[in-house]
Amino acid sequence: MENNSVWDEEKLNKLKKLWDEGLPITKIGIEIGVSRNAIAGKAHRLGLPKRNSPISKSGDPRKNQETTSKNTKQQLPLKIMLREVEWSRNRCCWPIGDPKLPGFSFCGTSIIPGRPYCEEHSNLAYTNTRES
Q: Taking the model in full, what pTM does it have?
């Protein structure tokens, strides 16, 4: 059986070098001449350090270790930051502020039975098309 592997010693060394330099996976693939999926798979099989997603707000994991505890909260994923927001089924859940920014909360006043909002926010949320 013939060995048709695209991974020779030269390409493996180049992959490791570019990976350590932090070059994006797609660009490594272009440099080596293979798909980004081939790069990701080979890096995984070689046990190379994991990379953060390019769309992640947390950035380079090597830099994250140097951040202070003050900035750590700002770098947490949004779904974890929102765990700290107080919310109740018996209180108005109209959002106040940007959920991606510190200080986000919900209205919190008493709701109209059967609706998730208080009277003021129910009037904003529910419109009657016959009133046009």
A: 0.40
Chain-centroid distance, C-alpha 24: 17
Where helices occur in 1-110 by DSSP H, the ranges are 9-21, 25-32, 36-46, 61-64, 69-72, 78-81
Alpha-carbon dihedral angle through residues 26, 31, 34, 36, given to the nearest 10 degrees: -10
For residue range 65-83, list pLDDT tens digits in order. Answer: 444 444 545 566 766 666 6
**Nearest CA among 42, 52, 53 for reference residue 16:** 42
C-alpha 66: how far from its chain's center? 20
CA separation for the pair 47, 1 (Å, rounded)? 27
Checking 15-22 for CB contacts under 8 A at 24+ apart, the result is: 15/39, 15/42, 15/43, 15/46, 16/46, 16/48, 19/43, 19/48, 19/49, 22/51, 22/60
> Phi and psi (nearest 5°) for 35?
-70, 160
